[in-house]
Structure formats: structure tokens, C-alpha cells
Design brief:
Layout lengths: L3 E10 L2 E11 L4 E5 L6 H9 L6 E6 L2 E2 L10 E4 L11 H12 L3 H14 L15 H13 L5 E5 L7 H18 L2 E6 L2 H7 L2 E6 L2 E6 L1 H6 L4 H7 L4
Parallel strand pairs: 3-8, 3-9, 6-7, 7-8
Antiparallel strand pairs: 1-2, 1-4, 4-5, 9-10
Helix pairs in contact: 2-3, 2-4, 3-4, 4-5
The protein binds adenosine-5'-diphosphate and magnesium ion.
Magnesium ion binds next to α1.
GO cellular component, one term: ATP-binding cassette (ABC) transporter complex, substrate-binding subunit-containing
Keywords: ATP-binding, Nucleotide-binding, Sugar transport, Transport
Protein name: Sugar transport ATP-binding transport protein, putative
Length: about 240
């Protein structure tokens, strides 16, 4: 399960409303990309869904239940942070185990989940290394592994590849898409990169200044952009 519904959600910081009333449904199993220029509210929206920021008004539903006041750790969602959020002094195995240890998952279950995640991410041979002994792409996979073992109903990614060089980014895009194919878990992926949006998404949400300009598949947006902004951003033919 992993359906997420936003009903008339708004967010203000002080006097400034950065998210005007917004409605959005993300279906279970969908790969949804939030795309838009820097400062348009992508991270804020993701953090509202994760519960890392309180919404100012409106409601958030997860799998049909009101989650508006549910604390982040109880929402069943996993925010994937950039690879630099790993603990440098811990092995890959311990980095991946850490969230389960905190949640009190029994040791044998921890072991089962670590092996599953390592297999899904091609990290089996690297479990005893420290993050410093890994490539950027491998470190990013460990960061994802730490989320997988929590068996979330959705993964939330905030520009997870922005620290990687161009070649690595291409590979990691493929790996994340492949992971989605394998797990079939809801994923919400934030990027300002049109190519990433167009190549990875089932559904794209185009944001401008906190507003949703258009929601649709990459082909919908390409062939039938609703306005000049979407056309320009997606690169539709004139
Ligand atoms: P994006 O991720 O699309 O670049 P953000 O969600 O980070 O955009 O920011 C959206 C707007 O909200 C920006 O104008 C930003 O300055 C503002 N903002 C974000 N977080 C805060 C905060 N904690 N306090 C005040 N303003 C914020
Ligand atoms: Mg951002």
C-alpha cells in the first residue's frame, strides 16, 4: 500500500505562503516526479508529505487514513537522503542496520532484510566496507538500502543525485528505476532536471511558485502541455 492524498494543503513560512491550496493524489505503486525551477516548493511539498514540516492547513491522507497529525516516523514513508548522510565510522552493514536497530527490529529479521536490500542493490560484496571505501554511486545505494530495510509504503527522494557527477547520475537513474520495477513501491522523486523527470516518471507534477501547473505522464506533457511554461520547461516542440 502507498496511496498518498493531499487535500487543500497549504504551507506558509511566517507571512509568506509558499504552497497555495493544493490537491494531489499519488496512486499506490506510482513513480511520481515533482519537477520545477529552484525555489518553486518541491522540497517543501516533500517534507510536508514526510511530516518533517507541519502543514499550515488542509489534510494529508496515507492509504485512506488521515495522517495530518501523524509524526514522521509513524507515517510508513522513507525519505532517502543524499549519500553523504552515511555514518563514516560504521560498515555498510551497520549503516543499513541502524534504522532497524533504532526501531527494535529483532536481529535475525535485521539480517534477512539487510541481505534482501544488499541483493536488490548489488551491495552484497560491500557489506563489510566503510563508506570511505566506496564509490559515490555505491554510497548512494547504501543510503537507499537504509530506507529499503524499513519496508516503507513509499520512498521520498529529494534530488538524490545532485552530488554525483554526470556519468554516475545516468547510472543511478537507471538503478532507481530498476529498483522501482523490482519493488513496485510508490516513489516520489524531486528534481529540477527535466531529463530526469521525463525518463523516470510514470506521472510528472510540474510546479511553479507552489502551484501545480500540470499533472500527467511524460507523453501527455510533451504532446499536450497546458501552457507556455510547461511547454518551455518540458521542451515540447513549438
Ligand atoms: P525547491 O525545493 O523547489 O527549490 P523549496 O521548497 O526549498 O523549493 O522552497 C520553496 C520556497 O519556500 C522558497 O521561496 C524558500 O525560500 C522558502 N522556504 C523553504 N523553507 C523555508 C523555511 N524553513 N523558512 C522560510 N522559507 C522557506
Ligand atoms: Mg529543493
Amino acid at each position: 500500500m502507498g496511496q498518498i492524498k493531499l487535500n487543500q494543503v497549504t504551507k506558509s513560512f511566517g507571512e509568506t505562503q509558499v504552497i497555495p491550496p493544493l490537491d494531489l493524489t499519488i496512486e499506490d505503486g506510482e513513480f511520481t516526479v515533482f519537477v520545477g525551477p529552484s525555489g518553486c516548493g518541491k522540497s517543501t511539498l516533500l517534507r510536508l508529505i514526510a511530516g518533517l514540516e507541519d502543514i499550515t492547513s488542509g489534510h494529508i491522507e496515507i492509504d485512506g487514513a488521515d495522517a495530518t497529525n501523524v509524526p514522521p516516523a509513524k507515517r510508513g514513508l522513507a525519505m532517502v537522503f543524499q549519500s553523504y548522510a552515511l555514518y563514516p565510522h560504521m560498515s555498510v552493514r551497520k549503516n543499513i542496520a541502524f534504522p532497524m536497530k533504532m526501531a527494535g527490529v529483532p536481529e535475525d529479521e535485521q539480517k534477512r532484510r539487510i541481505e534482501g536490500a544488499a541483493k536488490a542493490l548489488n551491495l552484497t560484496d560491500y557489506l563489510d566496507r566503510k563508506p570511505g571505501q566506496l564509490s559515490g554511486g555505491q554510497r548512494q545505494r547504501v543510503a537507499i538500502g537504509r530506507s529499503i530495510v524499513r519496508e516503507p509504503s513509499a520512498f521520498l527522494f529529494d534530488e538524490p543525485l545532485s552530488n554525483l557527477d554526470a556519468a554516475l547520475r545516468v547510472g543511478m537513474r537507471l538503478e532507481i528505476s530498476e529498483l522501482h520495477e523490482r519493488l513496485k513501491t510508490t516513489m516520489i522523486y524531486v528534481t529540477h532536471d527535466q531529463v530526469e523527470a521525463m525518463t523516470m516518471a510514470d506521472k510528472i507534477v510540474v510546479l511553479r511558485a507552489g502551484f501545480i501547473e500540470q499533472v500527467g505522464s511524460p507523453l501527455d506533457l510533451y504532446h499536450a502541455p497546458r501552457n507556455e511554461f510547461v511547454a518551455g520547461f518540458i521542451g515540447s516542440p513549438k
